[in-house]
Amino acid sequence: MRSVRIGVDTGGTFTDVVAVDEETGEILTTKTPSTPADPADGFLAGIDKLGRLDVGSIVHGTTVATNRLLEDRIGDLGFITTEGFEFILEIARQSVPDGYGNSYFWVKPPRIVPVHLVKTVGGRLDHRGNEVRPFNEEQAVEVARWFRAKGITAIGVCFLHSYANPTHEHRMREVLWREHPEAVISLSSDVLREYREYERSVTTLVDAAVKPVMRGYIASLSHRLGRPFSVMKSNGGILSAREVVNQPITTVLSGPAAGALGAALIASTAGHKSVITLDGGGTSTDVAVVADGEPSVTTEGSVGRYPCKIPMIDIVTVGAGGGSVAWISPEGTLKVGPRSAGADPGPLCYGRGGTEVTVTDAHVFLGRIPPHLLGGEIPLDADAARTGIQGLADKLGLTPERTATGILEISAFNQSNAIRQLTVQRGLDVRDFPLVTFGGSGPLLACRLIDILGLPSVLVPRDPGNVSAFGLLTVDVKNDYVRTYVTRDLSPGTAAEIFHDLEHQAGETLQREGFDDPVYQRSADLRYYGQAYEVRVPAPAGEIDEEWRAEVVARFHDAHEKLYGYAYRDDPRHAVEWVNLRVSGIGPINRPVIRRLDKPGAGATSVRPVHFDETRDTPIHQRAALGPGATVRGPAVIEEYGSTIPIHPGFIAKVDEYGNVEIARD
């Protein structure tokens, strides 16, 4: 029996599974419908579909934490902060979201914790961690008992300047353990030891909010699986399930992060080092930028409306998936998303009780996807899709074809706007980047995105519906640690002491994961004195001395000039300020090798009516039958087990030596 490593990515609509043979490198893939009521059911069903295998290890990408936040399903949550700072969440930041001209037209959304569930405790530290006022134990006991009486068990603790000295937060945790044993606690000094109290507070509260459901899910899955497994993190690394339950916030966007990493490896192997990745699923579309083979990383990310300053792959998510619902606004205009029909009940064509038209129904009506999914496992009800589209068309006063095409056009523009956020708005020319599109619904709008954005080409990998699951098998074990130390004169001795402490923390965790010889990556956040935000640059390994310090500062000047077009290298009036020192602890793994496609497989070409600019009989190609060098001119449709690629008139698709389909203007 062959030994395999398995990656399982649980999405909103489908659970994707990839197994890699550790000896031969052979890749097996399958998909199964997700089970939102209990994601573990879909997880185990997907593994069972692979058959009897000797499983060496399992890596899981989960949306349990992400969906909890995106859907605002946050139960009663308590917040404990420093006396006098009970309105941190209300004050927040002055910035107004895009799309609002000014604050007069923007109403702040409800806080993650309402005011009546915020309690304060006396005690104060300064920004260096020195105690100004002692911790008030009596108040702490009173607060703990108050939350116990109210039945609030998920509690976040964030005291002022606890990034510099966590002592007061540790004492608060001890009080909660003693007075309120049922409480699930998140400390800001554990979650994010970095300054800016608003972002640290919200990040800590998000961790506390998802901790109960993640602990329950991981425990249930571990019990049913009967073996240990690892979980994908937002930073592009993995960690064992037993460790990740202590900081579940690190798993938000874990599936999209795996997709970006898997797509980066596939594109790099095919000769494209810098690309845009687009992961189109049933519920949402996730977009990332890959530069020189590595997805960009940020600590300014968010999930839904909640800022999360943990390191994560820089991903923009929009509610534009196959299950996105088409609806009519009060003004009478057609809208698509962000609400999704999900896996249950799903689109109308699923025949599971869905009542609203979705993007998938529009594709079915136009003939662009086959009358079944997953090679026949999921038959589609084309009549139900047609009836729904007709009803929506009658309300809009349009033909059914115009209505269905309009739904897809709006979805394409929603996706293109996400791509612009990561490129045009950050000074990148989208026309310089090929697009790697994957996920079950990702390739469906490839030709329209080329037209809308002026993309040079679109690359669709083999088994595009399973790229995120494949990405889970390409990543190292990774943990991130940060320490805020704001100064314009960082001495090498102080820097060495902080980095040594951070590397020691990383090493302890990696040793528990079985890595005796970990790799450490240093970085630092710097800014010009007087600026509000920092630029992160890599810091050299090795001895920390004056030469090391000068090298980091030089890298900061270069990075600042690349980002903003100017730098103050030789201007003593603009001092450089150090803000955060960071360490990533990495346990390297053996990555699977992407093999060349030797020859085409079996599969006959057929014909069916498909509507692009008009309805006509259109060639339907089976992707397995397309070998290296094969060319398909539009109009045409390329079908496979987990996805479909419509080739519009005026476009051409070519198969490269690795089996990727590259689409461009003909």
UniProtKB/TrEMBL annotation:
Hydantoinase A/oxoprolinase domain sequence ranges: 200-480
Pfam families: Hydant_A_C (PF19278), Hydant_A_N (PF05378), Hydantoinase_A (PF01968)
MF term (GO), any: 5-oxoprolinase (ATP-hydrolyzing) activity
Organism of provenance: Nonomuraea terrae
Hydantoinase/oxoprolinase N-terminal domain span: 5-177
Name of the molecule in the record: Hydantoinase/oxoprolinase family protein
Chain coiled-coil ranges: none
Domain Acetophenone carboxylase-like C-terminal: 497-658
Alphabetical GO biological process terms: glutathione metabolic process
Single GO cellular component term: cytosol
Signal peptide: none
